[in-house]
Amino acid sequence: MENFFNWMSKPIPSNEVEVWFQVHNILPEKVELYGDIFLTLSRIISDTYLGDEDLETKIVMSDVDIDNHFDWAWKKTVKNFELEKIVIETNGEHKEYLRNFFHDSFYHQEKKLMRNAIPQFVSELFDLNKPFAKSDLDILTEIYKLLDRNVVYG
């Protein structure tokens, strides 16, 4: 249990984070870019989601509606970054990872407070000025590598 707690929350010294970044070829500029992509998608999804139970209309979204909403938000995110000369592959494992993330943590999350916390989670995950736990680095590295294979800029 102690190992799990340390993995989840114990801060890693900054020099070890630097070594981690070097070993995994993680560049701070790309961390910022990939964080912006993830955060933009998160905000588009949360700002346009109509499935809240507390709305007067009591809209219930089916799985097809959810998939359509995610696909629409993803395409909007891709187009927004294309305007900045950043090309994101429309399909691939990165999109599926993000789709699964939002299905689990947003669309199928019953607590609105938890759904609303996702942009903050994403901001903190990609914040290079805060201490990292091992769990943060694992998640950041996985997302970084997925996006790094599917994003072209410059």
Characterization of this structure:
It is a single chain. Helices cover 66% and strands 6% of the residues. With 154 residues, the chain is mainly alpha-helical. The chain has one domain. The strands form two sheets. The protein has a two-stranded antiparallel ribbon with strand order 1-3. Strands 2-4 form a two-stranded antiparallel ribbon. Helix 3 packs across helix 4, helix 3 runs antiparallel to helix 7 and helix 4 packs across helix 5.
Structure at a glance:
The protein is 66% helix and 6% strand. It has 8 helices and 4 strands.
Structural features:
154 residues, mainly alpha, two-stranded antiparallel ribbon, two-stranded antiparallel sheet, 8 helices, 6% strand, globular
Mean pLDDT across residues: 89
The count of strands amounts to 4
N/C terminus separation:
45 Å
The H/E string reads HEHHHEHHHEHE
Q: Strand portion, in percent?
A: 5-15%
Strand order of the largest sheet: 1-3
How many structural domains? 1
> Rg, please?
17 Å
General shape: globular
Structural class: mainly alpha
Number of helices: 8
Helical amount: 55-70%
Largest sheet: 2 strands, antiparallel
Give me the oligomer status: single chain
pLDDT < 50 runs, ≥5 residues: none
Show the helix and strand layout:
Elements: H1 2-9, E1 11-12, H2 14-23, H3 28-48, H4 63-82, E2 86-88, H5 93-107, H6 112-116, H7 118-125, E3 132-133, H8 134-148, E4 151-153
Antiparallel strand pairs: 1-3, 2-4
